[in-house]
Amino acid sequence: MDKIIRVNMTDLKVVTETVPAEWVTLGGRALTSTVVAAEIPPTCHPLGPNNKLVFAPGMLSGTPAANSGRMSLGSKSPLTGGIKESNSGGTTAQQFARMGIKALIIEGHPQEDKWYHLHITMEGVTIEEETETVGWQNFAVIEAMEKRYGDKIGVMSIGVPGEKRMRAANISVKDPDHKIRSHGRGGMGAVMGAKRIKCITVDSQGAGKVPIVDSDKFKKGARAFAKAILDHPITGQGLPTYGTNILVNVLNEAGGLPTKNFRYGQYDRHDNISGETMHDIIVSRNGHPKHGCHAGCIIQCSQVYNDAEGNYLTSGFEYETIWGLGAHCLIDDMDQIAECDSIMDDIGIDSIEGVVTMGVVMEAGVIPWGDGKGAIRLLREEVGRGTALGHIIGNGAGSVGDAYGLTRVAVVKNQSIPAYDPRAVKGIGITYATSPMGADHTAGYAVATNVLKCGGFVDPLSKEGQVELSRNLQIATTAVDSTGMCIFVAFPGLDLPEVFPALTDMIGARFGVDIDPGSFIEMGKEILKLEHAFNLAAGFSNAADRLPEFFEYDPLPPHNVVWDFTPEEIDAFWNF
Amino acid sequence: MDKIIRVNMTDLKVVTETVPAEWVTLGGRALTSTVVAAEIPPTCHPLGPNNKLVFAPGMLSGTPAANSGRMSLGSKSPLTGGIKESNSGGTTAQQFARMGIKALIIEGHPQEDKWYHLHITMEGVTIEEETETVGWQNFAVIEAMEKRYGDKIGVMSIGVPGEKRMRAANISVKDPDHKIRSHGRGGMGAVMGAKRIKCITVDSQGAGKVPIVDSDKFKKGARAFAKAILDHPITGQGLPTYGTNILVNVLNEAGGLPTKNFRYGQYDRHDNISGETMHDIIVSRNGHPKHGCHAGCIIQCSQVYNDAEGNYLTSGFEYETIWGLGAHCLIDDMDQIAECDSIMDDIGIDSIEGVVTMGVVMEAGVIPWGDGKGAIRLLREEVGRGTALGHIIGNGAGSVGDAYGLTRVAVVKNQSIPAYDPRAVKGIGITYATSPMGADHTAGYAVATNVLKCGGFVDPLSKEGQVELSRNLQIATTAVDSTGMCIFVAFPGLDLPEVFPALTDMIGARFGVDIDPGSFIEMGKEILKLEHAFNLAAGFSNAADRLPEFFEYDPLPPHNVVWDFTPEEIDAFWNF
Q: Per the entry, which co-factors are needed (chains A, B) (predicted)?
């Protein structure tokens, strides 16, 4: 029987509750956003006692469904001031699901000046004072927890930036290889730090299997679903071979690779940082081009990237990170970029917010353009140690822009715009503008249809059709984010008609309910509207759904395009 | 014939325009807010090329009317993101008025990486590259300009924080004694810095008198008006004797003196920093308890405060500054507070934002509570030099709170709450919440009626009548801010029936128009609504009209009161 666990940090008590009927078939983002909207006062301070952290595995997490091992985390974001769902790979979603934990809701604020550690077992949750690992970064915390509890333990932790409540701080999640995945965006690590929880350990010994009501139906769906993933060229070939970093050359070719803090759409040294180059480096150093972020992943877009001596340097090395330090900051050395990636994992900073911020740091003149060693030093010694400059940087691109009085700061709702220039890929610009999450490419990845010609083609340079495209993608993504599925299943989902029926068949079989692609999409609509309503109640107006002003008056080469949507055109997004 | 001067910093051109008919009888805040609302795109970046600076002397500035020498400055505030009117004493309002400059509107952004200096004479405005004083603080700039142009020159300048576009940076205005008054609040210095104007000099040689259409009527009004100011106990006796700092003991007695960053309503060492103590120190060191911020001031609430050796230390030494470093930061040494005040004048930081920020700096643990020497060092060496920590502090209390992830940060619309705790003086809380300017006691000084029993009495601890009180005061203040009058004329205005008719008689006589107290107040209503509408268009929602959450759950001793207005009660403010 699934349960809800509530941990109250004010009185240090744990309560286990039965799952309310209306939450039984929910999971992932649908569940976290439902709880956030129902329980968090929209105008509360995100770092105050009235905010909560809501962890929920996806509907299919813990089942044999391929790529279903992602955990959703909901809260009011200290970065955006709005609702947040941030999902991560790692081991905890599958552990929670098998342990029957439908959601873990962390509430309140400790009254004493102490740090705590939550330990979750089949017996329940204990809240223990934590002293050993306070002030440590994530890799050391994981190592200490494995030493304390054995290497099968699941770990979710924060580094120093999270302890210091920096708004780019993420929550790090141990993956199957003892490395790190992240609830990256929106400053979830700062909320955990405000609640003075250094880490959460998950011991799933004694947990059974996730119950599936209609096993045959499930297996049939799961097979069709897995086959589609493997059949599609992006998930079956492109991502496993080059990782997401295949996109450097694709976006450069499209003129939408934001370069030198969104001044240009192409980077003359794109070859230095491309997926193809990265693949060759990985292979030549005996790394692994393929790697999964959770058990059961059949896409394997991750990798193990070794240094020149063949020692492990980083993994989960994404296009957005490489773009951000590469084209955006003009750092053309892949190893320096990989070192920054590893540091961001270790100290616990969102690697998108972190890299976009670094470009704004260069814009401010704190270090020169292209200074990879400077970036490494700033991350490790300033952000990682929490100096004054570290606090400016660790609070994200908007923070640096505000601190230094800059106007060229690519954020929406104070969250950094990643890797795809909205002037040249207009569909993703609509997603940046309208997503309740703040600028987030994963919220409605219009790049697929604008550039990759997945799900058809909508001209990236034209306004026509972009609002509808982004709307459909955001609705579908909201639904998919509720399943525990990796968002990349959307690629086959857009092109192969069997994917969504297979997915909803698995959900129906899991819970013994009737669900079809139509009702699944309806759920996505409802949740997206609920998130938007939370933001409005938190004080956002339509003006929050806008890109920074400079995109409107500063044309982007080579297409020399500006962001030219009217406010009314953008606001039409919400007409559904 | 009055004129509008437009300075375009993009193409470095100056245009002189005739005054549009609908602006002829406007002045001060009514004119600046009208221009801001008409010409600045509400969603523009405040530090970008589409923001403007609008200087306008009051309707009566330059005339013989007592206390009419204040200049209004309008813009979109980089601190609040909303409309701003910030008015200052000094010499420039009267100079502008006599030179026939109805408004100076500065637009655009220079394209080159250079600093500029505007020089205003009867012949017009010249835009010159400035090299000598770049990187200097305000006292040195004033001295340099007096050397360059003679000691009668009017000066408006920014220090290093303004050059570096810090959002607490003010614009400093030379006063008749070569000291400094300020367009303090809202970060106007950052806007001037963004436009790369280091200083504006005003040479009014050759200017005549301000024309008055009905001289006899004017004189009669002016006499009645001046008599009322001198007759009222606050403006005739309290302020000239003790300055605004008379309020330390008054607010302490009322339990509304925010202490240790708004933890308590009383300060046990209030005697060390009181107006009475200050008066004795000034007299014992051969300073001057009375002093005016502009020619024609008959209240003389300012003073000359000397150091222990009898040398000039500071002037314009206000209650809010002394409260902020005293009770709020627990610095109980008047000389250390005076030194901070002088530094804030010199480097050009709003002395309200600066002191509230210092308490948040202590809250963050950057320096200990009560560390006056530390505060001096931070202001001079960090903010004044623009270090990373200086940028955090120089961007105000909200910036420090965001940087260090704090919840006890007393700001509304990101502007600091001054010197009167809204839980114990509820009328001023409504002003803080609703003023389009952000938290600003001068926008509707309900302390007068809540605590000083001026204009009747409304119980400060009860919600009853506070919204109406604040509304009436904000409307009247908006009107008074348009006249060039010092806001302290409101004290006699609240108690003596002859004041407002005398004021409107002077305005009517000045322009040859019919205006009475009723139509004057109607104008105040219109302008206040216009400002509110600008903010809504800029993206503010009702949720912007709220106090920080901690006031709602943290009771203030000794009365143990919380902020208990419902959102609906606050929003009723705008029903007029």
A: tungstopterin; [4Fe-4S] cluster
Give the residue on A whose Cα is nearest the Cα of B43: A543
State the residue range of the domain holding A127. 3-202
Flag whether the ipTM exceeds 0.90: yes
Domain assignment present for B171: yes
Q: Does a structural domain hold residue A546?
A: no
What's the one-letter identity of residue A273? I
Q: How far apart are CA B264 and CA B560, in angstroms?
A: 9
Mutation site for A-interface testing, chosen from B44, B51, B389, B541 by largest number of A Cβ within 10 Å:
B541
- Note whether residue B86 is domain-resident: yes
- Split at pLDDT 50, 70, 90, the class of A124 is very high
Share of chain B above pLDDT 90, in %: 97
In sequence order, which residues have a C-beta less than 8 Å from that of residue B261 and are 6 or more positions away? B328, B329, B359, B360, B362, B363, B408, B410
**Predicted pLDDT at B1:** 77
Cα A286 to Cα B213: distance, rounded to the nearest angstrom: 91
Which chain B residues have a beta carbon less than 8 Å from that of A391?
392, 403-404
* Angle CA B72–B466–B567, to nearest 5: 95
State the DSSP code for A453: -
Number of inter-chain CB pairs under 8 A, A vs B:
105
Give B399's contacts in chain A (Cβ within 8 Å): 402-403
Q: Average of pLDDT values for B32-36?
A: 98
| CATH number of the domain bearing residue A191 | 3.60.9.10
**B contacts of A193 (beta carbons < 8 Å):** 405
Question: Testing the interface with B: which of A195, A361, A402 to mutate, by most B Cβ within 10 A?
Answer: A402
Q: Which residue has the tokens 């340097």?
A: A313
- Count of structural domains within chain A: 1
- Which residue in the set A43, A47, A399 is minimally distant from B407, CB to CB? A47
Q: Single out the residue of A16, A18, A55, A14 nearest to residue A33, CA to CA.
A: A55
Interval B392-419 mean pLDDT: 98
